[in-house]
Amino acid sequence: MAGRPREFDREQALLQARDLFWRQGFEGTSMSDLVAELGIASARIYKAFGSKERLFREAIAHYEAHEGGFAERAFEEKASVREAIKQMLNDAVALYSHGDLPQGCMVVSSAVSVSEENQGVRHWLMEHRQQRTQGIIDRLQAAIEAGELPANTDAESLGDYFAAFLHGLSVQARDGVSRARLEKAVNVALTMLDRSPA
Q: Where is the HTH tetR-type domain (predicted)?
């Protein structure tokens, strides 16, 4: 008598797919890669998630709701803008250099390798990055309005700086730069909050 098929754990499959996409990106991950990683037939993957793109989008959503949601958590937990930005950057370093997870930011790393033929995915990832940038700008603007930062602080430029720095941390982590060096870089970046606007 043939054995019963292995029980399918959708949440576990999603986590495995997330880590594979995190390491290899959307285009660098084939359906055969997913079959090998998840240990289930492609038909079961399609039945559970619909398509590779839908699985990728769900994996990104899971990442942002959990590991990648550090910026939103920092802004909610810290009243001081300096402490909020500091926690956001330090949490990013901890995540991007975590030994048990793929290196860097899943959204940033995935976006680097998406070609024109997958414009829908590329645009969607761009929107995610823009939303994070806007979140930083909004937090800085709130600090200006509360008198925590000088009234002539340029929230947009400063927000763009910290967003670019976050993306750079991801690339540096993937390049193998140590956590200690990244943390020192964060301390330098935080001095931007202490400078008086020109």
A: 7-67
